Amino acid sequence: MTEGILLAVTAGIMLGVYALPEKFTKGFQYENTWSLFFLLTMFVVPVIASIVLIQGFGEIFSQMPMDLWIKMGLASFLWGIGVMMWSKAINYIGLSLGFSIFIGTVIFIGSLLPFAVDGLPDNESLILILTGILVVLLGVVLKGKAGLIREKDEAALTKESTAGGMKGSMATGILIAIVGGLLATGFSYANAVGRPYLHEASQAHGNADWVTAVAVMFPIFISGGIVMTAYFGYHLSKKKAWAAFKTPAFGKNFMLILFMAVFHYAASALFAFAAFKLGESGNTVGYAIYNTACVVTAIVSGIITKEWVSASPKAKKLLYAGVACMVIGIVVIALGN
Fold first, then answer.
1. Are 96 and 298 in contact (CB under 8 A)?
2. Using an 8 Å Cβ cutoff, are 5 and 289 in contact?
3. How far apart are CA 113 and CA 239, in angstroms?
4. Which of 230, 226, 202, 232 is closest to 216 using CA atoms?
5. Could you give the C-alpha distances from 182 to 71, 165, 177, 268, 290, in angstroms and in order?
6. Whose CB has fewer CB within 10 Å in the chain, the N or C terminal residue?
7. 213: phi then psi, degrees, rounded to nearest 5
8. What is the pLDDT of residues 131-146, one digit of tens each?
């Protein structure tokens, strides 16, 4: 169990920092950065990783039942829409608040969803797990409140009216983050429903246990990438942003975005392996730990990049209280497992 918890925390840290390089790209519009990111993380990285790392790659997926392809494909398609909306929310409301609201929704729905696939654990474990999830959610609420106060503090410092465009932008960003979080829980379902077959098939071809995580990610990422390709292809043309790829900073931007892509993919695969290591309730417990570690890391990243430099003491106290609640929640969830 300890190994599974550590793996889930590591995966969450990786997911929490993956978007950080986006702040340092130059000459790219939003569409340039995220279209290149999704191309790399949804197609290039998983295809190369799967072909190189999975023995019997062709046989495993050619023999995969069609109903499983459909279940994983549809759930992953929704997850793809959710992740795309997440990237949009970050641009509206910042890294810290965007992560908190999005991941809060993901934890609440995504941690409970696997129970519908895997069944319920014993009553004592179930109570502890649910209590831990609620404590984690309290932390998310506190950090969301901290983010809202921070926005008001920044508006007051710059003498902007909070009754105008800023509130509209904030409300839009929060709505995008919530809806995106709901859709992104398709990842948890796809992982839960696809793992049994893919683990058995992977083992039959002599692969190590951890390779199953790579196998599970292949249909999830390919299916999720379809919607993102269509979305960003349309917006690159609509906003005439294709020319921005010719910036002199393209080489630097590409390396930064490649880092994002590799970390995003590796974090997801590591979570899938952590869920396996955590046992019967691994999808639920691992998902809560994974996403909590992600939010805590994103908060720290936000502080490092000075997102909170203009925040009042009240906002910062709420932020730290939220982080504390999420850490306590992880411990309670771990005890429940």
1. yes
2. yes
3. 38
4. 202
5. 17, 26, 9, 17, 17
6. N
7. -60, -40
8. 888 887 888 788 778 8
